[in-house]
Amino acid sequence: MAGRRFTLVDGSRLDVIDPGRLNNDSGPDFFNAKFKIDGIEWVGNVEIHVKASDWLRHGHDRDKTYDSVALHVVAVNDFNPQRSDGALIPQLEIVMPQSFYSRYASLEEKINAVRCERFLGELSSLVITDWLESLSIERMQHKASRVMEIHKATGSDWDQTFFIILARSLGFGLNGDPFELTAKSIPLKFLYRHSDSLHQIEALLFGQAAMLDPGLHPADSYFQSLCREYMFLAGKYALQPVPPGIWKYSRSRPQNFPHRRIALLAALLVRGLPSVGRLASFCSDPDSLMQFFSTELSGFWSGHFSFGDESACAPTRLSKTSLQLLLINAVAPTVYAYASFRGDTNMAEKAIDLLELLPAEKNSIIRQWENAGLKCDSSLRSQALLHLRTAYCDVHKCLYCRFAAQLLRSTVRPHPASGICSLSPFSLITSFGNLFWVGAYQ
């Protein structure tokens, strides 16, 4: 929209220089917009409403926060808003065509699937590629910000940070939260003091996971020895386990029970987890990276899915697919966060490259996108599509999505016919905010 000319309701000429920054919190809808009115440059905030009289209905006339509004954009001009000092606020009336609302309603129809599936064929490959590339970085940054939150909480300990991220990833979604809580409940340095004893590390992890009740399995010598060992170590380190009952088992195959994942984590700790810097140095070699996390269960866990009944067919290693998921969800975000923390752009690129080298994830969301015509050739793209679904489609942010923006732009004409204003205030704000104000008429 920058460089385009419009006419305000009072007949003044409006030239937009910069639409400003979208505000997702309270206050005006756009911050620090820049434009000219009859050749005089203005810098200020922009507020958008269905009706101009919504200025009163929302109480902006009594809120000095809105004295910073330099332009009011509306669909219906039924009121002249003023600042608290009585000064009139410049107002722009925009009416969108009926085709815009019809297309928007079509995007809103599908609730549990790909909303724009039937329209994707209208998009150019350039639009698709550019948006998915941006989404992949957006998802990586989102994950990295979570890593940095944990890093800060650990007192800037990268080893402890990666231990927590890895543990959460071993929960594979269903038990991610319980695994994270368990890892946070015990300093890694305590575990490494017993790295020469798998039994003691198992006792510490199972105990902190609230899975060791001496009243259970009285005849199981392995279980009872873990209980005794944990009781001693918990007293020594003043440990408190996570709340009982937080682990989930529904819709989970026995080989994915948290007991086996905890046993695998214990085995990895005995071997020693690699430093984040060492992980970064192997990002161009996914097979070697997977070797860091490929360990075999032995002893009790080679024949059990949980405490109790024995099983002769229990797998003793993580599958290749599971190992790849650890690289996607634990290694790549941690390396990216570490690189950002150090200001190392080359290392950050290695984290992105790792996702390009790994195959695409396979799940119901990815299958829906593929059925809609968007194919996945790497985990970088599958991560982008997962982010698109969870961060945009599922939370009704179609108008923040470049796909929808492009599809809706195609419904707008340079001189639109009179439209209707049947959208909710939120929908209209996002419609104008992401479509008109930041470039629908470009």
Q: Can you describe what's shown?
A:
The protein contains 17 helices and 7 strands. It has helices spanning 54-57, 98-109, 125-153, 158-170, 176-184, 188-192, 198-208, 221-237, 258-271, 276-281, 286-292, 320-342, 345-357, 364-371, 379-393, 402-409, 425-436, and strands spanning 5-7, 13-18, 21-22, 30-37, 40-51, 69-76, 91-93. Strand 5, helix 1 (54-57) and strand 6 (69-76) form a beta-alpha-beta unit. Helix 7 crosses helix 9. The chain is elongated, with a radius of gyration of 28 Å. The model is unreliable at 413-435 and 437-442 (pLDDT under 50).
Summary tags:
442 residues, alpha/beta, seven-stranded mixed beta sheet, 10% strand, disordered C terminus
A few lines on this structure:
The protein has 442 residues and is of the alpha/beta class.
